[in-house]
Each structure stands twice: as C-alpha cells, then as structure tokens.
Amino acid sequence: MGRYFCHEQPDILSLETRVVDARPGAVVLEQTPFYPGGGGQLADRGTLRWGGGEVAVSGFEPAADGRFWHLLAGPTEPTGTGVAVVDPEFRGVMTQLHTGTHILNALVFQQFDRALVTGAQLNDDRTARMDFDLPEADNDKLRALEAGLNDLIRQDLPLRYTYVPLAEATTQHGLIRSRSVAPPPGDDGLIRIVEIVGLDRQACGGTHLASTGRSRALRILKIDNKGRHNRRIRIGLEG
Ligand SMILES: [Zn+2]
Predict the structure, then answer these.
(1) Residue 76 near residue 50 (C-beta atoms within 8 A)
(2) How far apart are CA 160 and CA 193, in angstroms?
(3) Core-most of 61, 91, 141, 147, by most CB within 10 Å?
(4) Residues, CB within 5 angstroms of ligand 1 (ion)
C-alpha cells in the first residue's frame, strides 16, 4: 500500500490531472483521486474526461512508482490533461461502510477479549461483512452491539491519521487488527494508522469519514457461524 492522494485529500473527488503513461485500454495519471481497492474496500468507480470525450474507469492495476493503471471501459486513448472524477455516491457508501466496520471492530475488540479480524468485505449493495476470531461468543450479545454502533455514530467522533514504523505497529498489540494480514508499509517503511478519537487506533489504508456522525445509521443484519472459530457479522446502512 502506497500513499494515495485520497488519503491526504479524501474530499477531492474531481481532479485535473495529466496522462503520464498509456497502453491500449489503460492510462497512468500524474495524480488521481481514485482509491484503487484493497483491504476489503471496493475500488472507486468514476470517469475520465478528456477534451470533449469521456470514458468510464473500469478497474485498476498496480503500475511503477506507487502509481496505478486506470483501466478504461472504452477504446478511447486519452492524452494530455483532463479531469478524473470519482463517483461520489459510490465513494460515500464505501466510506460510510468502512468507517462502520472500524466502529464494529473496536466494539468487538474491546468487549470480546480483544478478538481479531479474520476477514472483511464491503459490498456495493450498502452492506459489509466482518469475520472475527470468536470461538465462544454469544450471538445475542454480538447482535446487541447495534445500539453501541449507532451511539458512537451519534457521538460524531473525529477521525485522524498518523504514520508509524512497521516495527512499532507490530509490537503495539491491537494496532494490527487482522489475524492474518497487515497492510504493507509504503516506500518509506511507514504504516498508516487510523484513529477514531477516543475509541480506537488501527492500521488501515482505506477511505473513512471525517467524523463518525457523517454516517447513516447501521443495522446488524445477520450473524453466522463460519467454522469453529469464525463469526461473520453482516451490517448494512439504513435508508
Ligand atoms: Zn479503514
């Protein structure tokens, strides 16, 4: 995971930029507002607008120097300068769900004996699932976390970011919340830490709200036992 423009400027969804590399069906941009996916968060959707033309961006692939290829849905070959535009509604849903998964993750970690995450996936139907290593937990107690989730949304807690060396992140228990994978450090060897102030700190490379109060209410939709250890919690945005 490199450092992305969307990490520093998450509210800029439309950006004038320049093609710095091209191949049939794909371009690399000098700067881009797109999130290319990863960590369970789906890649942004959107368009590139070029001198009267417009083409949808259909996906991303890694390129050199921490940049990425923007795969194009049409045969156009954009050159020079143009505008990259992220679909604001899709980003909004991803960002709300992603922030919601952090709140859920914090509550499970704090109330269920520092249980770790075994998987997470955001979906484009306004739902997300998180899997936790929770061999003993009572599903009714997990279901009851819904009230706490929405209380923390109403408290409108701010989010902020710091960067710490990988060694520090791995020795501070709880900063790397996933049982199996940690976000890879950037070229500078630093890991991005997301803090929900007063609630939780953990390594993450996704996009989040500026404060929890910007999320719609969340519902806990379903809890499944997935094997002896894994508990799968599905959440969804209201309305
Ligand atoms: Zn995150």
Answers:
(1) yes
(2) 8
(3) 91
(4) 204, 206
Residue type for 40, please?
G
pLDDT tens-place string over residues 124-149: 999 999 999 999 889 999 999 999 99
d(CA 149, CA 174): 19
Task: Give residue 181's pLDDT.
Answer: 65
Q: State residue 115 phi and psi, 5-degree precision.
A: -65, 140
Sole residue written with tokens 């890879």: 184
Tokens for 170? 């791995």
Return all residues near 52 (Cβ < 8 A) that are at least 6 apart: none
**CA-only gyration radius of the chain, Å:** 19
Residue 44 to residue 151: CA distance in whole angstroms: 29
**Measured in angstroms, how far is the CA atom of residue 212 from the centroid of ligand 1?**
12
Q: How far is the CA of 204 from the centre of ligand 1 (A)?
A: 5
What does DSSP say about strands 117-122 and 53-62: parallel, antiparallel, or unpaired?
Answer: unpaired
226 C-alpha to ligand 1 centroid (Å): 23
pTM here?
0.94
Neighbour-count burial of 202, counting CB atoms closer than 10 A to its CB (0-12 exposed, 13-18 middle, 19+ buried): buried
Direct distance between the N- and C-terminal alpha carbons of the chain, in angstroms, rounded to an integer: 33
